[in-house]
Specification:
five-stranded antiparallel sheet, Class_I_gatase-like, 40% helix, signal, 4 domains, alpha+beta, Rossmann fold, 660 residues, nine-stranded mixed sheet
Length: 660
């Protein structure tokens, strides 16, 4: 219990540690620095307008001046499954009202906020202009940012910080220091915030910032107490210029080129924030292990020493695993893997081995953990690890015949990918700086792109590979064309690639073609659009079936995509559970069923397009609704009196056709 209470404290310490960049020489800059935010040439800045419609034009102009791609949206609901493709998201005046009265669907708000957290953790920069008096900002306390309602009218420079913020835009800064702060701003010191500009207030609060920035994961969250639409429009070009320069916090960072190759973007955005665990750890010392466990279980030390912190985390997950609490052990391990370069899959296997030796015999609960880790490893492209976890799960699930059958089915599905990884493992184990032949580059590229679906990494190898057609395709793809006609041509070149491929590789190539068609077709017109749509129809769409059973009273809706399915009840009593492929989904526990781990309802490669519906039982309406590619919507309505059992099969893929 004590450990669970201390986890938020631990997380704050973790983020503060990860934010600090490499130390700089004291005579140049005694101030701590946050790492720069890198971006790829193809990424865009997204402006969430909020209430500041008048801010769109100056925001677009500022992006043009800084040679940044620009997109805007009236709210955070941008009609996409996530925020990938953007390097920065800027929220305009009162943008956080979306998370209050701007959207009534609480599950949608939670999903979008979760996507924002993932965007930042993956290396994005979330920059928020003020929402009046900090209203509707409760969710953002998770970043250590706490806006308030105390206003101010003056700002003051922070030596060593503000000149970095204003660099290149000095002529835009009001000399009288006047700007309205529509509220004050508190921050959690455990997150290591860096204030870039502070307020002046006659009744205190003067040490609080006008603009602060804090690291979260591999990215950054910044908050400015100015509303540009209300006498603060001059802050827009300053903010965009700062973002375009990688959001530097220190003078020695000015002038650094923050535009990097797409294939290496993740490495650049995580290279500083993920230190390697110290090599000289002596984890056998009982006194240190006892002290570290006490810190975690009782109060969690705020000692910033990486060695002590890593020992504490390692001791905690070992204690939890040895006690059989694998939920807690995995929670701690996931946190550690975000802070240090540790191999969580190898550690999980070791924890399972130790537990199975200590307590041999079937354990259905532990089997489900092993099976979930198998699915996670497979999604991460760790196919050999996925197979090893599946073997451990089989041993643990010996008496659970239904689970055992599911594990064995997945092992058969794993086999082509497992064989592919075994074939390339000797090349993968070579140092990154090894010189490889074109043939070796092609072997690695085919594995990463066509089997593991890590396209950026795979394309970076294929562009130096042996196959001339694949070389050219990889280079065109990595260039990330913005013109829809060029995107469509790239899609068609992937579609018509005629080199030797396995069935698995051919499927991956067609999915890549489909990806570029999906990007280009909405922006094409006339004959170009007709031709692209015809080419898209020629691509195969492997079919899959998802079977549903439920007792329906009233009216409801199923919304399904590759990540999750949601149930929306319009009237009547919501079902207590829905059987999805014979497995219960208890709506009383969650209105969403995630397509992962033991709850997976469709394969990782499933294409949610061309849906078909076959109603087997039910006295009234079960209807497919029109929706965008990648999402399926099913409306269900029973007659006004009573309830009935409904059973139907959803088919996704080329063979899908609705039946009455």
């Amino acid at each position: 219990m004590c450990l669970k209470l201390s986890c938020p404290l631990m997380f704050g310490v973790v983020l503060a540690l990860r934010c600090l960049a490499m130390p700089v020489q004291a005579e140049e800059s005694p101030l701590p620095s946050l790492k720069l935010q890198y971006r790829a040439p193809n990424q865009s800045l997204l402006f969430v307008v909020g209430e500041g419609a008048a801010e769109v034009a100056p925001m677009r102009e500022a992006c043009d001046q800084n040679k940044l791609r620009f997109e805007s949206s009236p709210s955070y609901d941008i009609g996409k499954p996530d925020f990938s493709g953007y390097h920065a998201i800027v929220g305009g005046s009162n943008n956080l009202d979306y998370f209050g009265w701007g959207e009534s669907d609480e599950s949608k708000k939670s999903r979008i906020f979760s996507n924002l957290k993932q965007f930042v953790a993956d290396g994005g920069h979330l920059f928020l202009f003020a929402t009046y008096h900090g209203r509707n900002s409760e969710r953002f306390k998770e970043f250590g940012i706490v806006p308030g309602d105390v206003e101010a009218t003056l700002f003051e420079h922070i030596p060593g910080r503000s000149e970095v913020l204003f660099h290149g835009s000095e002529n835009l800064v009001p000399p009288d220091g006047k700007v309205r702060s529509w509220g004050n701003l508190g921050t959690d010191p455990a997150r290591g915030p860096v204030d870039m500009l502070k307020r002046v207030h006659p009744e205190g609060w003067s040490q609080q910032p006008v603009l602060t920035t804090v690291c979260y994961g591999n990215g950054r969250v910044s908050y400015c107490t100015v509303e540009p639409s209300r006498d603060g429009v001059w802050m827009i070009p300053i903010a965009v210029n700062w973002i375009a320069r990688g959001a530097p916090t220190n003078k020695d960072q000015i002038g650094t080129d923050v535009v990097v190759d797409r294939a290496r973007l993740k490495q650049w955005n995580s290279s500083v924030s993920l230190p390697v665990p110290p090599p000289d750890l002596n984890l056998t010392e009982d006194a240190i292990r006892s002290e570290a466990a006490s810190h975690i279980w009782k109060q969690m030390s705020k000692d910033a020493d990486p060695k002590r912190h890593f020992i504490a985390l390692k001791t905690a997950w070992e204690i939890a695993a040895s006690s059989g609490d694998f939920a807690l052990a995995d929670q701690i391990l996931k946190e550690a893997s975000g802070e240090y370069q540790v191999d969580k899959f190898r550690i999980r296997r070791a924890m399972l081995d130790v537990r199975m030796v200590r307590r041999p015999g079937p354990d259905a609960a532990l089997a489900k953990f092993a099976f979930a880790w198998s699915e996670e490893a497979y999604s991460a492209g760790r196919f050999l690890d996925a197979q090893r976890f599946a073997e451990q799960a089989k041993q643990l699930a010996a008496t659970d015949l239904e689970l055992l059958a599911r594990i064995e089915k997945r092992q058969i599905e794993f086999e082509p990918s497992v064989s592919a990884e075994k074939a390339v493992r000797p090349l993968m184990d070579q140092p990154n700086d090894s010189k490889r032949s074109p043939q070796q580059n092609e072997v690695l590229g085919r594995f990463y792109a066509f089997t593991s679906r890590q396209w950026d990494q795979g394309l970076s190898y294929l562009q130096d590979g042996e196959d001339e057609a694949l070389r050219e395709l990889a280079r065109l793809d990595l260039a990330d064309p913005a013109d829809p006609l060029q995107q469509s041509k790239l899609a068609d070149r992937w579609r018509t690639y005629g080199g030797p491929t396995t069935p698995q590789e051919r499927l991956a190539i067609e999915q890549r073609s489909r990806y570029w068609f999906d990007v280009s077709i909405p922006k094409l017109q006339g004959q170009d659009r007709i031709a692209a749509e015809e080419s898209l129809r020629q691509l195969r769409t492997p079919s899959e079936e998802i079977r549903f059973k439920l007792k329906l009273e009233g009216r409801g809706r199923l919304e399904i995509d590759s990540e999750r399915m949601n149930w929306v009840q319009y009237y009547g009593q919501a079902p207590t559970e829905i059987l999805v492929n014979s497995r219960p989904w208890k709506l009383s526990e969650s209105p969403s069923l995630h397509n992962q781990d033991v709850s997976r309802f469709a394969s990782q490669q499933a294409e949610f397009r061309d849906p078909g519906l076959n109603r087997i039982h039910g006295r009234s309406m079960v209807v497919l609704q029109r929706s965008r590619p990648g999402k399926v919507i099913i409306d269900l309505a029973d007659i006004p009196v009573g309830a009935d059992d409904y059973e139907f099969i959803l088919t996704i893929g080329a063979s899908g056709k609705s039946q009455p």
